[in-house]
Amino acid sequence: MLREKLGFVGAGALAAGLIRGILQAGLVPAGNIMVTNRGNGERLRRLAAETGVVPCSKAELAGAADVVFLAMKPQDLPGAVAELAGLLGPGQRVISLAAGVSLAFLEARLPGRTLLRAMPNTSCRVGASATAVALGKGAGTAEAELARCLFAAVGRVVLVPEEQMDAVTGLSGSGPAYVYLLTEALTAAGVGQGLDAAVARALAVQTVWGAGKMLVETGEAPEILRRQVTSPGGTTMAGVGALEEGGFQRLVDEAVRRAAVRSRELGVGV
Ligand SMILES: NC(=O)c1ccc[n+]([C@@H]2O[C@H](COP(=O)([O-])OP(=O)(O)OC[C@H]3O[C@@H](n4cnc5c(N)ncnc54)[C@H](OP(=O)(O)O)[C@@H]3O)[C@@H](O)[C@H]2O)c1
In the predicted model, is pLDDT for residue 134 greater than 70? Predict the structure, then answer.
């Protein structure tokens, strides 16, 4: 169990997912997690009632939390940081979760604080996030370990240099939606082949989940697993061939590239 007190500025979907994961992993007792938001008292009360975390003001949070998470939309971050700047003590650790907002932006507004950026994804809700962490000014081995420990409570963690965060956002930040889209497409295609919609959806969902579980649990490379189920002249080869001929890799390249570009634009706009 960690001794650090955690403070969440923002009580939305991501903060709630992270908090639930951290509590489930038994990393920090609920009484050591403080949460504040902009003004939605009902949301804060609900989260506190469900999880036992402590609702508070920004001043209370800044005065007590060892680690402060910035868990608001990028466009709301400058306002929140302006309020926090005079409240946070020197050396306090701040982890920004806002897509696209650079460490340089934070360093200029929160000088003297130890800064990190993290990009989890929505699967943190079920403890299966892919999270990338970048270290900023003042952050060293101890902070890297702390971040690894915190985000491991909600999935898998990698450390990357900050300049790769937009690429991370394009791949794993937005990635769950690509997989949901594939699941929708598989379902529709099954219906197109005469399956009942509910049956097609059940088969598509289980197929995506099973393939993910195979990747994680066997540790095999995806191309090995794919080759194992693709016999020459067989049905899978026919299906995979159609995806390749249709430019599957090119489409995925473009999806990740556009999302990364959008992440960069959002950061610039802050
Ligand atoms: N959702 C995800 O899976 C995911 C994944 C990766 C990264 N992210 C990043 O995480 C951040 C939060 O996403 P989300 O989905 O959790 O957003 P959300 O559900 O819209 O929640 C945002 C929270 O920020 C609070 N807030 C806004 N301005 C504030 C201020 N000035 N002071 C204090 N609190 C403030 C809001 O307060 P009220 O409750 O009062 O409205 C709300 O609780 C975003 O930057 C997003 O890019 C999200």
Answer: yes
Q: Which atom of ligand 1 is nearest to the CA of 72?
A: 24
Which amino acid residue places its CA nearest to atom 31 of ligand 1? 80
162 vs 102: CA distance, rounded Å:
8
Place of tokens 């130890």: 114
Tell me the pLDDT tens digit for each residue of 229-239.
999 999 999 99
Q: Which fold has domain 6-165?
A: Rossmann fold (3.40.50)
In the predicted model, what is the mean pLDDT of the chain?
95
CATH of domain 175-267: 1.10.3730.10
Domain ranges of the chain: 6-165, 175-267
Model pTM?
0.92
Ligand 1, residue 121: give the atom nearest the CA.
Answer: 5
The pair of three-digit structure tokens given for residue 65, joined into one six-digit string = 């939390």
Rounded to an integer, the average pLDDT of 145-152 is: 96
**CA of residue 243 to ligand 1 center, whole Å:** 37
Q: Edge-to-edge, what's the strand order for the sheet holding 67-70?
A: 54-55, 33-36, 6-9, 67-70, 93-96, 114-119, 129-135, 155-159
| Sole residue written with tokens 């101890």 | 142
Give the per-residue pLDDT at 133: 98
- The residue whose CA has the least distance to atom 1 of ligand 1 is 14
Which of 60, 47, 259 minimizes the C-alpha distance to 169? 259
Which pLDDT belongs to residue 80?
97
* Residue 240 pLDDT exceeds 80: yes
Asked if residues 128 and 179 have their Cβ atoms less than 8 Å apart, the reply is no
pLDDT band at 91 (very low <50, low <70, confident <90, very high): confident
Any atom of ligand 1 within 6 Å of the Cβ of 82:
no
43 touches ligand 1 (CB under 6 Å): yes
Answer whether 175 contacts ligand 1 (Cβ < 6 A): no
